[in-house]
Amino acid sequence: MDTIVTIALGIIAAYLGVGLLFALPFVFIGVAKIDAPAASAGFWFKLILIPGSTVFWPLLLKRWLRGEPPPVEHSAHRTSAQSPPHP
Amino acid sequence: MSHGYQLVTWTPFKKRYDQFLVGVVVAGIAVFGGVTFALNPLANPVQVLMRAFGLVAIVLLHVILAIGPLARIDKRFLPLLYNRRHLGVMMFALAFIHGAIATFWYHALGTLNPFLSVFLSDWGSHPGAFPFQAFGAVALMILFVMAATSHDFWLANLTAPVWKSLHMMVYVAYALLVVHVGFGVLQAETSPVYLGILATGVVILTGLHLKAGRTETAADASVASPVESDGFVRVASLADLPLNEAVSACLNGDRVAVLRYEEDGVEKLSALSGICQHQNGPLSEGKYVKGCLTCPWHGYQYQPDTGASPPPFTEKVPTFRLRVSDGDVFVHPTPCPAGTRVEPVTLN
Question: Do A34 and B157 touch (CB under 8 A)?
Answer without folding.
Answer: yes
